[in-house]
Amino acid sequence: MNRLVQLACAALLAFGVVPVALATTPDDANIDPTEWALLRPFALSMQSSTTEQPTTRVSETTVTADQLDEEHLVGENKQPEWTTHRRFPTTRVYVLPPFAIEFEQWWRARNFRHDSTQHLFQSEIGIGLPYRFQLDYYENFERVPHEEAHHLGSQVEARWAFAEWGAIPGNPTIYGEWKFNDVESDVYELKFLLGDELSAGWHWATNGSFEEQVRDERELEIAVSGALSHTLIDEQLSLGIEGVWRHETANGTRGDPDLSFLIGPSLQWRPTPRTHLDFVPLAGIGGDSPQIETYIVFGWDFGYASKSVEAPTSTRGN
């Protein structure tokens, strides 16, 4: 009976407590050396199988991870590459990396229901700064019905992101702008920016804004914009949807606001790694909306070499 108990204990050590079994000598366990010689190889094989299992799981997780080059994190802010240039004409996302420089040429056309069209041409240059700041400068030209194209004014914009990308959900960023107008009163604008990735290849953004004239009729605009895009070809082509809601009033009309809502497709093509072309035709729905509002933006990035600093956001935490 004593011998059976000893053999049973040795078997339990082999199956369930292998390290103890391996550390135990035949003398410690009071087991015949011949019987121990038969059990020890089996215990060694059990230890090998249990230690190899975790390594296999880690390897499988790494290999099957989904990856997009445009979602690799770059720069000091550890932000995805797709945020280093403008993704959506109607909706801003985060800030440029430090010392990244971007030039953009805008054309926006608003077609109203009484067959009049307003054209706005903007030339913009933006630069990313340390500590998650960004500065932009615009020159604006306008052409309205029955008038020649003329210089409308200039504007200065500043942004600041609260933290490195991914540290706070939605990557909140604040935005302030001052428009120096030639004829009408100057205008200030405040915005709150949010944006992130839903999953590999899916990117979103939303902005809330408040804009007001400092004198004259004190025109006031409150707006909310949103955008969603899906990458069709990594770092080259994306397709999505954008929308804008506006609430506009002036002195004497605060109780009777002009309301507009526009929505439509959004296309971005990147013919080279440093250039992008955006086309966004928005259709007006009800209220005082334009029939259609179209954006065409050409951008050129220079002065910054994109260098990956971490794995894609889709693989973080694996």
Strand elements, count = 15
Count of DSSP helices? 4
Gross morphology: globular
Structural class: alpha+beta
Report on the biggest sheet: 12 strands, antiparallel, barrel
Mean pLDDT: 83
The share of residues in extended strands comes to over 45%
| Second-tier CATH architecture of the largest domain | Beta Barrel
Any low-confidence stretches, pLDDT <50, length ≥5?
Answer: 1-5, 7-25, 42-65, 312-318
Looking at CATH, which topology of the largest domain would you report? Porin
Helix % is 10-25%
**CATH-wise, what's the superfamily of the largest domain?**
monomeric porin ompg
Task: Summarize the entry for a quick read.
This protein has 318 residues and is α+β, with helices and mostly antiparallel strands.
Architecture overview:
This protein has 318 residues and is an alpha+beta fold. It has two domains: 61 residues, no CATH class; 246 residues, Beta Barrel (Porin), CATH 2.40.160. 18% of the residues lie in helices and 47% in strands. It is built from four helices and 15 strands. It has a twelve-stranded antiparallel barrel. Strand 4 and strand 5 form a beta hairpin. Helix 1 packs parallel to helix 4. It is globular.
